[in-house]
Design a protein that fits this description.
Order of helices and strands of chain B: HHEHHEHEHEEEHHEHEHHH
Number of strands of chain A: 14
Oligomer: heterodimer
CATH topology of chain B: Rossmann fold
CATH superfamily of chain B: Thiamin diphosphate (ThDP)-binding fold, Pyr/PP domains
Strand content of chain A: 15-25%
Radius of gyration of chain B: 20 Å
Distance between the termini of chain B: 52 Å
CATH architecture of the largest domain in chain A: 3-Layer(aba) Sandwich
CATH superfamily of the largest domain in chain A: Thiamin diphosphate (ThDP)-binding fold, Pyr/PP domains
Order of helices and strands of chain A: EHEHEHEHHHEHEHHEEEEHEEHEHEHH
Helix content of chain A: 25-40%
Number of strands of chain B: 8
Number of domains of chain B: 1
Structural class of chain A: alpha/beta
Bound molecules: thiamine diphosphate, magnesium ion
Strand order of the largest sheet of chain B: 2-1-3-4-8-7
Strand content of chain B: 5-15%
Helix content of chain B: 25-40%
Number of helices of chain A: 14
Largest interface: A-B, 47 and 48 residues
């Protein structure tokens, strides 16, 4: 553990990339501090902050009681008073106990105060299923947060974004939520050296293609890429778009991709009904209707609380095969 | 329905009744002796400040009836001693977090009546630019952080303000007002524990007016001794007669000193009463008129006026002069608000994010 992760020296994991981002933030700005349940002595419930307590001490790597509302709200207050807090909520499922603070304070104070009170807060949390953790630890609720004006919502899906999204998030004067998909922490690879500041406004084309656009983010990106591989061997060229930022959405990248491919599949691990996938489909219908050669397809989780049993969980979640099938529906 | 009686309030004791970490306090501990700031001039200030709040809110009722102001409007008439007594003990660098019943807190904090009135009118000159209204008064320059209409929602925020001040080595105190109803919320208990655990410079100011909307204290709390329960978190806590502005000031001064000295969060249960309904919408059917009338016998403004008269500190013309000054100020605020500009609809999406306009609609 604790591999550098910043310089392109050997393999690094998503977890280490995130940790290195935290370390850099704590080093470079004494207004930054990290707080949350078990971020200190335990090292973070997913091991992300391991070693940071020893390096920065208990004032700046701050274990909190099990009080999501109080410590998220305390992060908001500290941000108002000039600090740059990073608040970790163990998983998005528990963020619901702090939803009041996130929506009614963090997202709203700037507006209610007539522009006097920006809230430069970063909240990190884990999202997603796939590890047989059952219904109360597996949901993908980032789309709910993407519903809220005043928030920026990020979903780093790659090592680069895990490593480099935090700094611009901290520089943002407004609240930023970072959703880390639990299945990504062990993803590893070579982290390329930084090519300049990472922007938070644009979606990325992770794989160019000409026949269909696969629009996805976070933990579903590897599945979409795997589907594109499989489709390529069957002669279908799929373009894979990683949204990166779920609010505000990068409408331009989506529209220009669909203008080229004329077909779109949205892949989103959240439930289909009233979802981000629904929003994306609606926008494509609004903006790209005359470019489309087929109806937009959606691959989402089944409308069921995520079950524990492995085969049921797998059946509930979008899988590579589901993406491939959706593409065939659109293309054939 | 049992009828709450004003006699249940008691004078703030010389020592915290139920604080676990009781500290020896210097001076100002004897409720019977004149307070340090007991000069007649200071009492006159307190009187004028309470009267300004009272008359401001009475004007709000008129303006509301005339449909000049709208929305939810919660009056603190009857509770002015709390706002004024506490604010008299704060420095400009201290922070204040409040509720939707905050006209008094805002005015006592020094936010000009014009800015508050303009906010009620929804005008650009309002202290929140017209985006907040009665329940969301803000003034960053006075460290007045709202105006929160989620019951107990301001408490975690206040803990964070206090934490930031502590981490930056500033000896500021953050004061958080909330009601007896908020005491039942998890956010209060989470924040009380966190503040005590981290020894935060936070002053909890529980305005116990015996009702959460229409639900009487004994119908929403299993144990109604709120100070005692707060003390169980390991903070100094005691109950104060919230109708006596000087008692409030003494208690608040002692608590603020304790917080500033690093003794951790303190909690004051300010026993008070609202003379008016919960909000302009409330037909006030859940309490007896006789109960309200009994509490009015302890009107904080009358209480102080009588005391000053007994002391020979108010000559016969003084009350009229104060009334006139207050009325002039409010007239001016109303006139200014009536003339103030409304924000163009083209600005609708301003202040959603700090950048001029969000990238997507
Ligand atoms: C979380 C939440 N629940 C319910 C309400 C509706 N509500 C507004 S004020 C109030 C009563 C609060 O009573 P208390 O805390 O005693 O304050 P008071 O109004 O007496 O000053 C209620 C239930 C709300 N605004 N927020
Ligand atoms: Mg009350």
């Amino acid at each position: 553990m604790g591999a550098g992760g910043g310089k392109g020296t050997g393999a690094t994991t998503y977890r280490e990339a995130m940790r290195e981002a935290l370390r850099e933030a704590l080093r470079s700005d004494d207004r930054v501090f990290l707080m949350g349940e078990d971020v200190g002595r335990y090292g973070g419930c997913f091991g992300v902050s391991l070693g940071l307590l020893e390096e920065f001490g208990p004032e700046r790597v701050r274990d909190t009681p099990l009080s999501e509302s109080a410590f998220v709200g305390a992060g908001i207050g500290a941000a108002l008073a000039g600090m740059r807090p990073i608040v970790e909520i163990m998983t998005v499922n528990f963020s619901l106990l702090a939803l009041d603070q996130i929506l009614n304070n963090a997202a709203t104070l700037l507006h209610m105060s007539g522009g006097q009170l920006p809230v430069p807060l970063v909240i990190r949390t884990t999202t997603g299923a796939g590890r047989q953790l059952a219904a109360q630890h597996s949901h993908s609720l980032e789309g709910w947060y993407a519903h809220i004006p005043g928030l920026r919502v990020l979903a780093p899906a790659t090592l680069e974004d895990a490593r480099h999204m935090l700094a611009p998030a901290l520089a943002d004067p407004d609240p930023v939520l970072i959703f880390e998909h639990g299945s990504l922490y062990n993803a590893s690879g070579e982290l390329p050296p930084p090519t300049g500041p990472v922007d938070l406004d644009h979606a990325a084309v992770r794989r160019p293609g000409t026949d269909i656009s696969l629009i996805t983010y976070g933990g579903s990106l590897p599945k979409a890429l795997a589907a594109a591989d499989e489709l390529a061997s069957g002669g279908i060229s799929a373009e894979v778009i990683d949204l990166r930022t779920l609010r505000p959405l990068d409408q331009a990248v989506i529209a220009s991709s669909v203008a080229r491919t004329h077909r779109a599949v949205v892949v989103d691990e959240a439930w289909r009904t009233g979802s981000l996938a629904a929003e994306l489909s609606a926008r494509i219908a609004e903006e790209s209707f005359y470019d489309l050669d087929a109806p937009v397809e959606r691959v989402c989780s089944a409308e069921v609380p995520i079950p524990y049993a492995r085969r049921l969980e797998e059946a509930a979640l979008p899988q590579t095969a589901d993406v491939v099938a959706a593409v065939h529906r659109a293309v054939d | 329905m049992s009828v709450a009686r004003p006699t249940r309030t008691r004078k703030d004791p010389a020592l915290p009744k139920s604080g676990r970490r009781t500290r020896a306090t210097k001076g100002d501990t004897d409720a019977g002796t004149p307070a340090r700031h007991g000069a007649a001039g200071h009492r006159t200030d307190l009187l004028e400040s309470m009267l300004r709040i009272r008359r401001f809110e009475e004007r709000c009722v008129e303006l509301y009836s005339a449909a000049r102001i709208r929305g939810f409007v919660h009056l603190c008439i009857g509770e002015e001693a709390v706002a004024v007594g506490v604010n008299a003990t704060l420095t400009p660098e201290d922070a204040v977090v409040s509720t939707y019943r905050e006209h008094g807190h805002a005015l006592a904090r020094g936010i000009p009546a014009e800015a508050v009135m303009a906010e009620m009118y929804g005008r650009t000159t309002g202290c929140s630019g017209g985006r907040g209204g009665s329940m969301h008064l803000f003034d960053a320059s006075r460290r007045f952080y709202g105006g929160n209409a989620i019951v107990a929602g301001g408490l975690p925020l206040a803990a964070g303000l206090a934490l930031a001040d502590r981490m930056r080595g500033q000896e500021h105190v953050t004061c958080c007002f909330f009601g007896d109803g908020a005491f039942a919320e998890g956010e209060f208990h989470e924040t009380a524990n966190l503040a005590a655990l981290w020894n935060l410079p936070l002053l909890f100011l529980c305005e116990n007016n015996l009702y959460a909307m229409g639900t009487a204290l004994e119908r929403h709390e299993a144990q109604t001794d709120l100070a005692m329960r707060a003390a169980s978190y390991g903070m100094v806590a005691w109950a104060v007669d919230g109708m006596d502005v000087e008692a409030v000031e003494r208690a608040s001064r002692r608590a603020v000193e304790g917080v500033r000295a690093g003794a951790g969060p303190h909690f004051l249960e300010l026993r008070t009463y609202r003379f008016r309904a919960h909000s302009m919408y409330d037909p006030d059917r859940y309490r007896h008129k006789a109960e309200v009338e009994r509490w009015k016998e302890r009107d904080p403004i009358a209480l102080l006026t009588d005391r000053m008269r007994e002391n020979g500190e108010l000559d016969d013309g003084e009350p009229a002069r104060i009334e006139q000054r207050v009325a002039d100020g409010i007239d001016h605020a109303v006139e200014a608000a009536e003339r103030a500009p409304e924000e163009p609809v083209g600005h609708l999406l301003h202040h959603v994010t700090s950048s001029p306009a969000e990238a997507v609609s």
